[in-house]
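Protocol step 4 of 5: obtain the predicted structure for the target chain.
Materials: sequence only (see below). No template structures provided, no constraints applied. The aim of this step is simply to have a reference model before the mutagenesis design in step 5. Sequence pasted as it appears in the construct record:
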Amino acid sequence: MNSKINIESLNWWFWFISLVFIVAAIAGWTPGYYLTMILSLLNLLNCLLKEKSLIAFPSQIRFVYFAVTLLSFWPGGRFYVYILLLVGTFMVTFLGKCSIALALKQMPWNKRREMRLD
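Step 4 output (C-alpha cells):
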C-alpha cells in the first residue's frame, strides 16, 4: 500500500487537519464538529478560487464533503456521519483514494471527466 502523504501540498493539510478535528469530535470534543465544518468550507472556497468553477471535479468533491459535514447540526446522527467521514478522510489523507470522487464519477455529468482530487 502506497502512502500519499504530501506535506508540501495545501490540499493535503486541509484533509489532515480535518481528520484531526473529526477524531477530536468523535472522541467527545463537540467544537470539533463545527471546526470540521468551517475547515471544509475553507477547503471548498480555496478550491473554487483555484478551479474557478463549482462544476470542476475537485470542487464537486469538496462541495459534497462540506454538505456532509453540515449533518453535524443533527445531534442524533452526527456521531455516525462523522465515523463515515473519518474513514473517508483517512483514505484521502493517507491513501489518496476518495469515496466521494468514486461516487461522483458515476454521475452522468462526470462520465467524460478526469477523476482528480486536486
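Step 4 remarks: The two ends are 21 Å apart (CA to CA). DSSP finds five helices and no strands in the chain.
Proceed to step 5.
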